[in-house]
């Protein structure tokens, strides 16, 4: 029932929310905002939070008549957190003439796969969760940044900020000087560890071991033995909670009783469930300030709960809502001048560069690369079986 109210397309391709934009019951044109995210599998809680948050923004836009003469719909596509599946989802959305923009994906590796597909179709893409810096600034993002896909934007901050933020927290706040690192070889995990390691060593810290795992691994005994031989004071992990939770549980059981820290990919209640009681004291960073404590996010939280979605908004809900709101702001410029949604694609991308508003997560605006100009992050600690915010700061170079 909640999904229908939010204007999500039915599997049969049915119409949008009743009444639509314009409010008079007259015929309206349709524009579709796609969502590409993991809607099944281990990362589904994060993906469903993304989907529902976009649906909430679209529902509100339709109810308010934000774009007279137009009804917005949401078309969710499951990427299964896999680049090839994500590419197929992007191809499907791109071939639909009603699709004018999309929100997603969650995984940076999927982001790399879908970027060229949406760019070739001239479709605006806004990710609430991709944090690998190369997606906006190219392969040489640290020395010679160059924007490769003008259709791509994001509302979250990047690993070139998140990694150093975590390094400073461990070295300066926690007083930890010896670290082991592990990553899952994917774009997000590898990039996060590289950014973290560079900053940690520059601060004077020592990386005593650097190991990798495969994303499908579930037995980490060999890696635990290897990193433990370096006598680290903490382990920094690049990847997501389906692997980091069991890694934490197994290393504590093996006697390596040190904190495990990771990025936003493990900031979820699912991590604590997987890691168990021994996760107490583990750490994670995530983009932005805690949503529950942000005055700007309280209406989003209230509205999301009132909408009756079957899944929580999770770590990226507010950023997904702001991504959808940014798309809607651009559509307010492009759609009134267009005969069809497909006609509005180029103008929507152009309008996005000038979008600026106060969102649920705070100020939303984009720099010349398509990155959000806000660079606030939070370090969380597991206390009493829950993530508790320990430090929130705006990152300064």
Automatic annotation (TrEMBL):
<dbReference type="Pfam" id="PF13458">
    <property type="entry name" value="Peripla_BP_6"/>
</dbReference>
<feature type="compositionally biased region" description="Gly residues">
    <location>
        <begin position="13"/>
        <end position="25"/>
    </location>
</feature>
<feature type="region of interest" description="Disordered">
    <location>
        <begin position="1"/>
        <end position="25"/>
    </location>
</feature>
<comment type="similarity">
    <text>Belongs to the leucine-binding protein family.</text>
</comment>
<feature type="domain" description="Leucine-binding protein">
    <location>
        <begin position="33"/>
        <end position="383"/>
    </location>
</feature>
<dbReference type="InterPro" id="IPR028082">
    <property type="entry name" value="Peripla_BP_I"/>
</dbReference>
<keyword id="KW-0732">Signal</keyword>
<protein>
    <submittedName>
        <fullName>Branched-chain amino acid ABC transporter substrate-binding protein</fullName>
    </submittedName>
</protein>
<dbReference type="InterPro" id="IPR028081">
    <property type="entry name" value="Leu-bd"/>
</dbReference>
């Amino acid at each position: 029932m909640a999904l229908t109210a939010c204007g999500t397309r039915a599997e049969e391709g049915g119409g949008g929310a009743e009444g639509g934009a314009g409010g008079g019951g007259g015929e309206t044109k349709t524009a579709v905002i796609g969502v590409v995210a993991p809607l099944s599998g281990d990362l589904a809680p994060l993906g469903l939070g993304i989907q529902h948050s976009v649906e909430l923004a679209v529902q509100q836009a339709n109810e308010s008549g934000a774009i007279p003469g137009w009804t917005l719909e949401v078309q969710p596509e499951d990427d299964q957190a896999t680049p090839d599946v994500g590419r197929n989802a992007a191809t499907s959305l791109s071939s639909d003439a009603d699709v004018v923009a999309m929100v997603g994906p969650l995984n940076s590796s999927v982001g790399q796969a879908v970027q060229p597909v949406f760019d070739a179709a001239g479709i605006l893409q806004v990710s609430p969760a991709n944090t690998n810096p190369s997606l906006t600034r190219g392969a040489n993002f640290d020395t010679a940044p160059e924007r490769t896909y003008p259709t791509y934007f994001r509302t979250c901050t990047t690993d070139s900020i998140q990694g150093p933020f975590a390094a400073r927290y461990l070295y300066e706040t926690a007083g930890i000087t010896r670290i082991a690192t592990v990553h899952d070889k994917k774009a997000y995990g590898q990039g996060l560890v590289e950014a973290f390691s560079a900053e940690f060593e520059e601060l004077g810290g020592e990386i005593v071991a650097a190991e990798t795992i495969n994303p499908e691994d579930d037995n980490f005994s060999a890696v635990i033995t290897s990193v433990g031989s370096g006598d680290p004071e903490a382990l920094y992990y690049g990847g997501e909670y389906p692997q980091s939770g069991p890694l934490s549980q197994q290393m504590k059981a093996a006697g390596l009783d040190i904190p495990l820290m990771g990025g936003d990919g493990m900031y979820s209640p699912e991590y604590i469930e997987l890691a168990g009681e021994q996760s107490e004291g583990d750490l994670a960073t995530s983009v932005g300030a805690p949503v529950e404590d942000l005055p700007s996010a309280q209406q989003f939280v209230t509205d999301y709960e009132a909408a009756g979605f079957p899944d929580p908004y999770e770590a990226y809900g507010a950023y997904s809502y702001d991504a959808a709101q940014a798309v809607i702001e651009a559509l307010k410029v492009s759609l009134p001048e267009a005969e069809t949604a497909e006609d509005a694609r180029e103008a929507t991308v152009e309008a996005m560069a000038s979008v600026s508003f106060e969102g649920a997560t705070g100020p939303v605006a984009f720099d010349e690369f398509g990155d959000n100009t806000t660079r606030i992050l939070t370090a969380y600690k597991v206390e009493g079986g829950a993530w508790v915010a320990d430090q929130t700061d705006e990152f300064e170079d």
